[in-house]
Structure formats: C-alpha cells, structure tokens
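Hi R.,

Here's the input for the magnesium ion complex you asked about:
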Amino acid sequence: MNNVALIVQKYGGTSVGSIERIRKVAERVAGVRAAGHHIVVVVSAMAGETNRLFKLASDLSDSPHPRETDVLVATGEQVSAALLSIRLQALGHSTVSFLAHQLKLQTDSNHGNARIRSVDAARLTEAVGSGNIAVVAGYQGVDAKGDITTLGRGASDLTAVALAAALKADACEIYTDVEGVFTADPNICPRAHKLKRISYDEMMEMAGLGAKVLQLRSVELARRYNVPLVVRSSFSDVEGTWVGQEDESMEDVLVSGITLDQNQSKITITGVADRPGLAARIFGPIAEAGIIVDMIIQNASADGRTDVTFTVGRDDLRRALELCRMMAPEIDAAGVRHEDHVAKVSIVGLGMRSHAGIAARTFRVLADEGVNIEMIATSEIKISVVVNAKYGELAMRALHDAFLGEGSNAATAESV
Ligand code: ASP
Ligand code: MG
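And here is the predicted structure with magnesium ion in place:
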C-alpha cells in the first residue's frame, strides 16, 4: 500500500487474554505499523478480568458505590494497555499508552454507564504524527469533576469508534474471537455463515436484539459519524465483515440475519377496563422502576375489557410482577398471569422495506414446524416473534434455513 492510512484497531478481552495472546496482538500491530500506517490501538481488559473485579466489589459490599466500582473496574483496561505497550516497545517500536483522562475523554457522571460528551484528539494526533503507536485503555472516561467513569459493559468498542470519529480515521477494525458478523449464532445454526458486509441499520437491530459481536452504542456512533467498521478475528487472517452505509445492492438481500433472545419473560394483565390512560398507568410505574419493556400487545376490547401483554427481560420479571400485582386493583384488572421463560426470534433485513411477503413466509415456516406464535412485532427492517422457550432454537434454525439456506435469499418476485 502506498497511501499512509490512520487506523484504529480494537482488541477484545479474549484477544488480549494471556501473555501469549498479547504477544500475538503486538506482532499484528507491528506489522501494520511496519507497512507505514498510523495506528491507535484500543484494548479491553484481559478476558474475565472485568467480571473478576466486579465480583471482588460485591464480595465486600451488597451495594458498592458506583463511583468506587468505576475506579476498580477501569483498572482492567489500564493493565492491558500497559502490557501491550511494553511488548511493542520490546519489539523496537515507539509507543505511548493513554488512559481516558489523558485524552480528555469526557463523559457525564452516570457511573457504570456513562455517555461520552467529547474527546480531544490532539494528544493522539501528536503521538501518532511523531511516529508512535498509541495504545489506549478502552471502556473508561472521565467526568467534569475529573472522576473516573466507565461506559457500560462491552464499551471498549465504543471507545474505539469515538476515537476513530474524532481522528477521522480511515477505518476502525474491531478484533475479536470470531471471524465477523454471522447470519445467526453458529452454535445454534450449523449453516450460519459470515456476512461480507452489513448496513449500520441492520447491525444496530442485530446488536439491540442480542447479537454479541458489537456493542450497540458503538454501532450507533459509527453510523452517526460514518465510521467504516470492520469486525474480524485476531486469531486468523480471514477477511471480516464490513459494517457501513447501505448501498443499493444490500436491498437485494431479503434477510441478513436471525437473532434469538432466550432471556425474556411475558406478563399478561387480564380483563382491564379499556379506558383512556390505561397504558400510561400500567407502564408508567414500570418505566420509573427502570424496567425495559420490549413488546406490548393490547387486544381489541370485548365488553369494554381488554388484556394487555408485554415482555420484559427475565432479570426484571420479579419486580415487574410485583408492580403489576400492586396496580391490578387500581386499574380494575381481573388478574395477572405470566410465563417466566419465552424466546424472541427476530429476522433482520433491509430487503423487507421493498419486498412484500416476508412476514407471511415467516409465519408459514413456523406453522410448518408446529411452532405457535405468541406475539408478533414488526419494524421497517425487522420481524420479531415470541414463542415458547422450548422452541426458540428450532424456530431460529427453521427460519435461518428458509431465508438464509443455500439459494434462498435472492430478492426475486418468485422468492417472496
Ligand atoms: N472490559 C469491559 C467489559 O468486560 C469492556 C469491554 O470488554 O469492552 O465489559
Ligand atoms: Mg466485546
């Protein structure tokens, strides 16, 4: 390559999970530098380290203060950054490591899940401009008081994208332990395959639906600043998946991916009086409790009474049920029922915008498998169905083979 590029690379926890792995990462980084490119490397904590640190805190207190927890858990990334920098120097490269406060990576004070307000790229620009490899601790920030914050689990991706945006980098490469973004989880769908590219919008849906490969907020930020992202493996040289702006040919593919969320519960409030303000009275207290409600269905009312069904994450079921039982008499409800384990299967694809019949085909595939659909929700590029937890994996495989099996995914009039 004759053009010098500025590349931000991010290495996840398994990629820097041992001294041996850090050596390998250093070799990869050194190779890119040797080709003349400017590099900023963002690292996660070594695999398991962040969980270990959280556990230490919870061993000492039932409710450790988030400010102190952030001081603790931010150390994982500091260790990785220093170790990688040390190794690169041992290979003869000049490097500078940076923590968030040194880059003025400013956030709000929402400890544990802070939002980035600004980044000052000057020190990074200066460091790489004078021939250094910059190594940055991911996941952390600093608030207006100068206190250490963290950006949320998995947020080293976000650090990398934020720096790539601030530096107007040519690419942001996310190195992980899988070869890219797959059409489905290969552990569940043996025929899942790697995508060559996917649009920001599809990737956002998939990340929001639980595809673990990229953190959701990092994809949102990449989209906003048009940062070209590539997800690839640090364990091989296989080409990864590009995440970027959509182009026309992307709509020719009906479906890009299928996701499965096995961690949902379903609550039904039965026989409520169908009056204005009903939904507000049910969902107001639930939202105030910080519980995220996903799908909501309200039936047409018969005799002025209706059922309202919705899903919440399994971790929130107990609290959501308590709230519902408390409000049931107030809204004159007949009862509260729940199913503590349901599965949500979703199909994501830009092609849905321009091709009719995908929903109908989805329902046909599930009917042929004898899977009963309990709830349905759609958006412009997504169809989600809730099914009995037992059938989640079966539903995913059947839909994957129907939409993404060989020769099944070309958007022709006949195929929809
Ligand atoms: N170490 C942090 C976590 O485990 C951030 C990251 O890995 O991206 O969530
Ligand atoms: Mg990650």
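One thing worth noting: The chain is about 35% helix and 25% strand.

Cheers,
M.
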